[in-house]
Records
---
Amino acid sequence: MSLPKPGPMSLVPFVSVEGMMQLILQQGVEGMLVDLAAYIEDDFRRWEQFDKTPRIAAHSPEGVIELMPTSDGRSYGFKYVNGHPKNFQSGRQTVTAFGVLSDVDTGYPVLITEMTLLTALRTAATSALVAKYLMPKGARTMAMIGNGAQSEFQCLAFKAICGIDTIRLYDIDPNATQKAVHNLQGKGLTVVACKTGEEAIEGADIITTCTADKQFATILTDNMVGSGVHINAIGGDCPGKTELHRDILTRSDIFVEFPPQTRIEGEIQQLPEDHPVTEFWQVVTGATKGRTSDRQITLFDSVGFATEDFSALRYINELVRQSDAFQKLDLLADPDDPRDLFGMIERYGRGMDAA
């Protein structure tokens, strides 16, 4: 007698890290970034359909662990993600993540996937999507300050989506900069390694800051930022973690994902609660304008929001239907009689004995 096999409703597609790398290579990094940006943009257009709540965070002295849930009424998605800046000292990732997409009608998960790689991709896709609406006309050069795990994805997203052709790199760790220079070779970009932040922003139309320290930091001072630039501030994402001097914020038109979350975690935690900001979805739908003048400083105060991860999960769920880059997990109990979980165990035990 053979052991009982998983029932037809037991199995859930699971995309591992290896499976995600296969999908990325099949689509191409830039192709995947462009596709992700399109899914994210579509979901910003239907922003009002989503359940929205600030992410649920458990903070510690060393970092943060967060859950990021949302639903559009048909599907439900969440991401588990951590941020631990000191992890790299022990050979670990600063950010790791996984996610689940479920069917609202049944509550059954339809996809489980790694999201460490996917978060890097969706963060970069979101940055470039926003910049497409806010950057100065004809922008070609970006300063990339902070050359860690996210930097190459950001650079390639801005190339593919915004037409950036020159990247000026700076990190307090020269080895991180050299790593990024090496990885970006042959990718169709002019890459310049810089020795200071001030050098990196020379001639830059866009400034991206992506640093990891969990403290009130000043990566950009007020005198470093001239008129007409777009700032993509993506490193600040929890209370006490910022990158920009407060005076830059007061000179900028600030665009955010979800104000109740950004006021707690973003650069604007430095400002009064009533300081005006614009929600990016309103720019996408045409309800309000983005960049309005050549001299305007636009600032995307990005902390990442659950709808962006939902978009990424929705995209991967479509990709795996056309690919074999996934495994089937025996995740859900599927007894012959839905009311007889105990009997399922008994029958499995008898099968074990017979085998």
---
Amino acid sequence: MKKMALLLALGLGASGSLLAQTTAPAAATDATPRPVLPLYSGSIPDSKPSRVQETSVTEGAGVRISNVIQPTLTVFMPSKEKANGTSVIICPGGGYARLAIDHEGYDVARRLNEMGVAAFVLKYRLPNDQSQPDKSIAPLLDAQQALRLVREQAGKYGLNPERIGLMGFSAGGHLAATAGTHFAQPVGTNPGSASVRPAFLVLLYPVISFSDSLKHAGSRENLLGRTPSADQVRLYSNELQVSAQTPPTFLVHAEDDKTVPVQNSIVFYQALRRHNVPAEMHLYPQGGHGFGMNNKTTKDQWIERLQNWLDANGWLTK
């Protein structure tokens, strides 16, 4: 078998205002300060007083954030000449223990801007019994609130409120897939009537299933604890939650991923097909886990395949 991407593509059919309070530090390759929006204007739901403090550590692959208390969206806007009204909320990965916010967040946001797509990097709360009454819903609360907030701010940023997608890497892919399959019953005590359904999903080497055979043990334990019930495991095994209303989905995975088995993407793709949801999946023979935008084992660039997919579905049309 030649070392080239395996493409599986079916059904490519069309498918209270907050102000930025601070700015994100600029990356070494990008001197532009970015507005940072707090997700919540008042008290943060599913939170309780604690001594937990956010930490940020720079490692070889970039910044890793943990113990998030104040969830935010960092805003990356395309130039007015390129802007097409589509936006994507990005959920970095990190096993529900940390956020790889550079190479699975800011770097991807800048590349989306080149397509004319606005990007919002979500710093979501990671499950923590010390600071959350119910740690299993805190990340999803934040993802759903991010969708509400971008929809509310659409006019300010010149966005189409019906063209807001959700992208996730690894455990962030689990969060995005959860948001894309659990939108009919939003979590929280007062979810309101605003839609929390993304227009499309983009899932990169995602954790999908919490079943014993496919799970990423760290992600499942961090979100649900060491002894989750059978009902919890089923609820958060997103291949079992797909319906005909699940958004069109773009999937990328490496077959030699030893952290999150490639079967996670495959079972989600199969579930989408059973429900006639448009889907496209790219499987690379090699690449391992956590490669971000650059799978060094191939000259093929999945981000270019994504651009083609977005274009084919009309999301890059002005």
---
Amino acid sequence: MSSTLHPMLNVAIKAARAAGAIINRAALDVEAVRISQKQINDFVTEVDQASEQVIIETLLTAYPGHGILAEESGSEHGAEHSDFRWIIDPLDGTTNFIHGFPVYCVSIALAVKGRVEHAVVYDPTRNDLFTATRGRGAFLNDRRIRVSKRTRLAECLISTGFPFRPGDNFKAYMLMMGDVMQRTAGLRRPGAAALDLAYVAAGYTDGFFESGLSIWDVAAGSLLVTEAGGLVGNFTGEADFMEQRECLAGSPRIYGQLVGLLGKYSKFAGAGDKAAVRQAIDADVPPAQDAPPASGEGIEDAGDSAAAEDLPAAPRTGDDAPF
């Protein structure tokens, strides 16, 4: 740990590395890990729980008066009404982890009076440590990082997360992906939102969007993005997104173009946009676009790729659209 870092960030780094050590040991024999299911396609393992426990113990040993909000244990630890609240995802990408797919991370953020001030996203498989303190920039392994400089959406690589729980609106998401795929160089679905945001901050990808996310999925990564010069908000571009369950991030020019594409799919979209999306869902055709498609299309999820025109139509299940 560096003596030049804020003491609270140093403690968060210590906690993240301790959790990463637990995850790496368990990854040596994933088949021996006990797994339970919170709901369909939503898993928790004993590794999530052990990782969360060591993070909480490390943070509260240093700052016993702070509050805790953690994915697995909620707010049952720490001081309930503290102005300092640690927001923890002990293993973001659990489904990847239990399949041995090495894309997952530890995410820790500290919010002071509701505003995220410090952030750590740690990838234990690559020993990549992303850190940020408000006003001091974002870093990867002590090297300053910035969002990408691309300005044309057609040249951009965008990451996302697919819906996978009962009640998710698959039809709407298929339309969103279609809008993005035909206007970009490619679409990726790594499977860990905190790491997706860290990759936007580092310039590895140019943008990210996903709905259905919780605060612990985005708290740390969002500060990384803004401290790296990017923008983050909901699909309509509003910055107060943290608990709205939709997240859009990117370099400033690309962020604006993605808002233009995806804003109509937001639960905060206008009535006209919502009606157009509902009509498109019913017809299984994309809503009309003002801008012509840019060259380049692609999608890749866990190593498989397909051209946009080969993507199967969204399944005709019951209409659960929130629009």
